[in-house]
UniProtKB/TrEMBL annotation:
Gene3D superfamilies: NAD(P)-binding Rossmann-like Domain. It catalyses: (R)-glycerate + NAD(+) = 3-hydroxypyruvate + NADH + H(+); (R)-glycerate + NADP(+) = 3-hydroxypyruvate + NADPH + H(+); glycolate + NADP(+) = glyoxylate + NADPH + H(+). Keywords: Oxidoreductase, Pyruvate, Signal. It comes from the Bacteria. It holds the Pfam family 2-Hacid_dh. It comes from Sporomusa termitida. This is Glyoxylate/hydroxypyruvate reductase B. The gene is ghrB_2. InterPro entries: D-isomer_2-hydroxyacid_DH, D-isomer_2_OHA_DH_cat_dom, D-isomer_DH_CS, D-isomer_DH_NAD-bd, NAD(P)-bd_dom_sf. Residues 1-299 form the D-isomer specific 2-hydroxyacid dehydrogenase catalytic domain.
Length: 305
């Protein structure tokens, strides 16, 4: 769709391009389709004097300096909504896989340990408490899955949601959530406020039997503190779809731990959802280039009228 209407330059080499590598492209670019591993900051904007619209096929936009874009009157689009159920499946799937040791069981079968050795024992979901930090669109979809599995759901947001009764989750303060949850799923956007939200103090307050799941952004968690908490068995298990750093080098100590499960940021990675995200991003990009309002704009104050 984009190619039919625009001259497109697409970065196809492995790795993240530097500003120097993108120099000439940015100089000419009127629209930018950015991936979340690109830092769209004041430096990039300064190198792109003709830029009029930015569209990113992701709901999180922590890699983009929104204020700098707004100052330049550049509307920025993300892709909320279209990935909600898919990401909720992965977040809840991580919880279920870790709790029931599905991945460990498969590794045992592959290693020929079955049936002689005792199977890895998991824990039940039924009757347990799930604490969600950041109960937005994905958190609400996770709540439905958890309730269907017989779990009680509590949550912490900056403010209580007026519709939490309908969603089936009970508001509580952050401290209480840490102390009482059997499972914690993190689904906050990465912001100044949430960066490093889970550090040594927070892990120390969790139950020693707690399972910690992060499907938001790696930097919401202090990786070293999580590593220490898992080694010291301050918490029982972690399951992460996002890490800091990301990608996590194969030599990283976290990967060697017996009580962790990590997936490579695949929350929204299904054929159907990636296609919906790409189409929505393309639609926003073309609308912006035509000077029309974007459908899902992050900085509506500079959305085209
Ligand atoms: N692993 C993956 O592949 C994916 C990860 N994500 C991440 O999940 C995040 C959430 O996505 P949605 O649910 O669609 O967003 P959303 O905006 O609907 O929900 C986010 C919720 O977090 C709350 N929140 C914000 N700051 C908070 C804080 N400091 N403490 C507690 N709560 C806070 C908000 O009030 C809101 O209710 C995205 O920003 C993105 O970073 C999203 C999609 C896929
Ligand atoms: O949408 C996002 O924010 C992701 O992390 C990838 O889908």
């Amino acid at each position: 769709a984009i190619q039919a209407q625009c001259e497109v330059r697409q970065w196809e080499q492995p790795g993240v391009p530097t500003l120097n590598q993108l120099g000439e492209w940015l100089q000419a670019a009127e629209g930018l389709l950015a991936l979340p591993n690109i830092a769209v900051n004041a430096g990039l904007l300064a190198a792109a004097p003709k830029l009029r619209v930015i569209a990113q096929p992701a709901v999180g936009y922590d890699n983009i300096d929104i204020q700098a874009c707004t100052d330049r009157k550049i509307p920025v689009a993300n892709t909320p909504g279209v990935l909600v159920e898919t990401t909720a499946d992965l977040a809840f799937g991580l919880l279920l896989t870790a709790a029931r040791r599905i991945h460990e069981g498969w590794a045992w079968v592959q290693a020929g340990k079955w049936p002689e050795a005792a199977l890895p024992l998991g824990v039940d979901l039924y009757g347990k408490t799930l604490g969600i930090v950041g109960l937005g669109a994905i958190g609400a979809a996770v709540t439905r899955r958890a309730r269907a599995s017989g779990m009680k759901v509590i949550y912490n947001n900056r403010r209580q949601r007026s519709d939490d009764d309908l969603i089936g989750a009970e508001y509580c303060c952050f401290e209480e959530l840490l102390a009482t949850s059997d499972f914690i799923i993190v689904l906050t956007p990465l912001t100044l406020e949430s960066r490093g939200l889970f550090a040594a103090n927070e892990f120390a307050r969790m139950k020693p039997t707690a399972y910690f799941i992060n499907a938001a952004r790696g930097a919401v968690v202090n990786t070293e503190a999580l590593y220490n908490a898992l080694v010291a068995r301050q918490i029982a298990y972690a399951a992460l779809d996002v890490t800091d750093p990301e990608p996590l080098p194969a030599s990283h100590p976290l990967i060697k731990l017996p009580n962790i499960l990590i997936t490579p940021h695949i929350g929204s990675a299904t054929r159907e959802t990636r296609s919906r995200m790409a189409l929505l991003a393309a639609e926003n990009l073309l609308l912006g280039l035509a000077g029309k309002p974007l459908v899902t704009c992050v900085n509506n104050e500079v959305n085209y009228q």
